[in-house]
Design goal:
By secondary structure, the chain is mostly helical. It has a single domain, classed as Winged helix-like DNA-binding domain superfamily/Winged helix DNA-binding domain (Arc Repressor Mutant, subunit A, Orthogonal Bundle), CATH 1.10.10. The protein contains six helices and two strands, in the order H-H-H-H-E-E-H-H. The protein has helices at about 15-35, 40-55, 65-70, 75-85, 110-130, 135-150; strands at about 90-95, 100-105. Helix 2 (about 40-55) crosses helix 4, helix 2 (about 40-55) crosses helix 5 (about 110-130) and helix 3 (about 65-70) crosses helix 4. The N and C termini lie far apart (about 40 Å). It comes from Flavobacterium suzhouense. This is MarR family winged helix-turn-helix transcriptional regulator. InterPro entries: HTH_MarR-typ, MarR/SlyA-like, WH-like_DNA-bd_sf, WH_DNA-bd_sf. Keywords: DNA-binding, Transcription, Transcription regulation.
Length: about 150
Amino acid sequence: MPEEINFHFSSPNDSPGYLLGQLAMLWQRKQKKALDPLDLTQTQLALLAALGWLSKKSDSVTQIDIARQSNADRMMVSKVLRTLQDKKFITRHEHPTDTRAKIIRLTNEGEKVLQKALAAAVNADNEFFAELGTAQTTFNANMAKLIDKNKNE
């Protein structure tokens, strides 16, 4: 008979990591249902949204800018951007001063799909987080605090 496994928490619902993992999986499922009709994943939307947001302030958005904005791994960003380029949602051009970098831009089709995807994602979020009611502001602030504390690790 195996030894008894000792858990730190008396119940899975006492573990913030477990709860966060469960919540993330359920939220991703909800987002997938909303984004599937647009042929986008949640990760693709996140990077398109980062590009759209950064493009409001700069005409020279790079892959590294997108990775920083989205707190994403640079290699993963590169792979996803290639997929978005294949879908004709973005273009990549030579950077005028940095030969290692590419300027990333939304295409007209990319702008259209991003706008539709943002609306779909917001609707899905509104449904998913509705249970929080007025506590959503505190929930968002706590998530932002954790992101800020841990993003450089």
